[in-house]
Amino acid sequence: MKKEILTLQNAYARCNTPSGIEDINLSIYERDIVCLVGTTDSGKDLLFDVLCGREKDVEGDILIEEKRLDYCSKGDYGQVAIISDVVDPFPVDDWLVYEYLLMMNRGTWGLMFVKKEKAAALAQEFLDMIQLDISPKARWGNLNQTDKLILSFLRAYIGKKKLVLLEYGFDGYNKDDFDSIRHQINRMSQMGLTFVINCNSAEVSLFLGKRFIVFKGGRICKKSQDAFVVRRLMERILGKPSNYHMSPSYKTRTVHCSGASEQKIYVNNSELVVLIEKDYAKKKKVFDSLSGRQHELDYYLVFEGILCQASSVEEYVKNKIVSIGRLDHRAELIQNLKIAENLLLPSIRKVSNFLDLYPVR
């Protein structure tokens, strides 16, 4: 029988949020990979904050290996590794990999000062254990985000942690990145780590997890190991707007993005689409082109079946395509226009063209 690592008994919390958590009872076992699934206000984020010790006004019992968790005791969190991108999880760009892995772990940190080569050799053994092709003397700031995340798992293992609380957005990660992360999470699980994962994307959670806990209205509404069942349940929870149609209302062709020579973008009615790209400058370039702020990219814009000339601000204004970016910046505002009129202008760079077409009186 598997050993219980984390147990919640009749947990309640409000913490000044619209939806608290009520009567939460669950057990997470050794080597589990559990994902919390639900909407932002479902209670899953609040529960994760409670587990991380960010929210302390909690009724009920939270046990780690059958010992009640004391938020005021650092010793109680000695068995827990919290990995979160809410704050920068990797503030050590000047460190070497072996320093990051061994520095804060008892029994190994002393090697940093007296036997650096031995410390690097020890780190190499751990890297070989998970078959990660990284030099222990590589500089941390030169690594990609996927390798950094995997190394944070390894650091938790070296530090003899029992539980990893992972809160991550995974912005800009591609399929290969997710394959590598899932593979290493499974490997670390087999080595004895237990994972609780909180992610804003249900699809990412369903890909990474082996067991799923679905939240709605501050309560657990489903526990399942079947990703298909959880996906169908989330579709019912989210629902579809009554005016939802699958025909695209906004689409582009031949948008050149990172990692692909051509990228097609389709936006259906009532959809919210997020551009995800690791490189902020590249993402901004795509957004600026789609919203008419610049035209360095070669693409066609079709809005509700009508081909729009992307090089003409008249098409944006006529079709009421609104774009908001740095709205409070002077480059986005014309002082003698109303707010709504400012919103309809894609960019002040095209104001001269706009004023030629529609002179301001």
Please provide a written account of the structure.
By secondary structure, the chain is of the alpha/beta class. Helix content is about 30%, strand content about 25%. It is built from 12 helices and 14 strands. The chain has helices at about 45-50, 95-100, 110-115, 115-130, 145-160, 175-190, 200-210, 225-240, 280-290, 315-320, 340-345, 350-355, and strands at about 5-15, 20-30, 35, 60-65, 65-70, 80-85, 165, 195-200, 210-215, 220-225, 250-255, 260-270, 300-305, 305-310. The strands form 3 sheets. The chain has a 6-stranded mixed β-sheet with strand order 6-7-8-3-9-10, with helices on both faces. Strand 9 (about 210-215) and strand 10 (about 220-225) form a beta hairpin. Helix 5 packs parallel to helix 6 (about 175-190) and helix 7 runs antiparallel to helix 8 (about 225-240). The longest helix has 16 residues, at about 175-190. The chain is globular. Mean pLDDT is about 75; it is low at about 70-75, about 240-250, about 255-260 and about 350-360.
